[in-house]
């Protein structure tokens, strides 16, 4: 179960890794493959220094991984995770079943041969460019991923970047995260309950908190990979994010 500085568990649907990153941070990775992607991914700086001290215990069907500031409990039967403070206060949790879902699909890449004839033409609908007919081929296998969470009454959520809808508290909303002219997608969510989550992906995402449930859906990933942080203050959560992703460059004077 414990492997070097991480806890690795076989759960329904795949393999789960709990990797304490700092006293107040944990990396959670869920994979349908036999191995995990190397390194810290596209968003997070490599881990420096010693891994935090942590303890692993199993009681009443729950695997408990605890540091001095954060407790992660995994239900052995279903793989559902809940996050708590050392005093036992619930931060957030997954539903008992299907909290983490991976759905495999083939990534299709189109290959184009050299274009014969002129690259542009003028027709009844105006001037337009011509392209060669693309030939599809399977590039690799990837997964759609979904992480569901159970938010608490009175809890407010902020983050996910800059969007045109003007929504501040994301509770009860639907947000599409993709890069566009007036959108800035940042897969980071922060809660007034004293926790935050950073999804380690460059994929398009969909966040929803409505009558259909509360979840983040990722369009194309190799594994479901994210960091959960706890702090009693928003300032502490922001500082922890900078530790993960680097310092903010200051604007010139």
How would you explain this protein's 3D organization?
By secondary structure, this protein is mostly beta strands. It contains 1 helix and 20 strands. The chain has an 8-stranded antiparallel β-sheet. It has a 5-stranded antiparallel β-sheet with strand order 5-6-7-8-9, with no helix packed on it. Strands 10-13-19-18-15 form a 5-stranded antiparallel β-sheet, with no helix packed on it. Strand 11 and strand 12 form a beta hairpin. The longest helix has 12 residues.
> Helical amount among residues, as a percent range?
under 10%
Strand content: over 45%
Care to count the β-strands?
20
Termini separation: 53 Å
Mean pLDDT: 92
Overall shape: it is: globular
Low-confidence stretches: none
Strand order of the largest sheet: 1-2-3-4-20-17-16-14
Structural class: mainly beta
What is the H/E string? EEEEEEEEEEEEEEEEEEEEH
How would you characterize the largest beta sheet? 8 strands, antiparallel
Give the oligomeric state of the chains in this entry, treating copies of one chain as homo and distinct chains as hetero. Answer: single chain
Can you count the helices? 1
Radius of gyration: 21 Å
Keywords:
253 residues; 1 helix; five-stranded antiparallel beta sheet; single chain
Short description:
The chain has 253 residues and is mainly beta. The chain has one helix spanning 234-245; strands at 2-3, 6-11, 14-22, 25-31, 55-59, 62-66, 71-75, 81-84, 90-93, 100-111, 120-123, 126-129, 135-148, 157-162, 174-177, 184-191, 195-199, 205-210, 213-221, 224-230. The chain is globular and about 70 Å long.
């Amino acid at each position: 179960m414990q492997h070097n500085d991480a806890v690795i568990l076989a759960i329904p649907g795949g393999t789960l890794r709990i990797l304490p990153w700092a006293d107040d941070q944990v990396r959670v990775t869920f994979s349908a493959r036999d191995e995990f992607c190397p390194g810290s991914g596209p968003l997070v700086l490599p881990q420096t220094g010693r891994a935090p001290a942590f303890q692993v215990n199993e009681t009443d069907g729950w695997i408990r991984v605890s540091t001095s500031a954060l407790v992660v409990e995994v239900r052995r039967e279903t793989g559902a995770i809940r996050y708590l403070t050392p005093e036992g206060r619930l931060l957030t949790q997954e539903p008992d079943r299907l909290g983490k879902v991976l759905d495999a699909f083939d990534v299709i890449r189109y290959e184009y041969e050299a274009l014969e004839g002129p690259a542009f033409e003028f027709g009844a609908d105006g001037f337009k460019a011509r392209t060669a007919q693309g030939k599809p081929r399977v590039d690799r296998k990837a997964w759609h991923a979904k992480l569901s969470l159970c938010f608490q009454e009175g809890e407010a959520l902020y983050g996910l970047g800059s969007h045109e809808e003007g929504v501040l508290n994301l509770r009860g909303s639907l947000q599409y995260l993709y890069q566009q002219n007036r959108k800035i997608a940042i897969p980071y969510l922060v809660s007034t309950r004293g926790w935050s989550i950073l999804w380690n992906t460059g994929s398009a995402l969909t966040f929803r908190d409505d009558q259909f449930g509360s979840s983040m859906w990722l369009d194309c990933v190799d594994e479901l990979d994210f960091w959960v942080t706890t702090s009693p203050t928003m300032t502490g959560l922001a500082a922890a994010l900078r530790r993960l992703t680097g310092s903010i460059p200051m604007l010139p004077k």
